[in-house]
Amino acid sequence: MEVWQHYLMALQQDAERIPTHAFGRGDLLAEAAHNAYQQTSDRLVAEGWDPESTLTVMRLLNQVTGSWIDRDGVNWDGLSREMQAQYEAWTRPSEG
Question: Does the reported pTM lie above 0.85?
Answer without folding.
Answer: yes
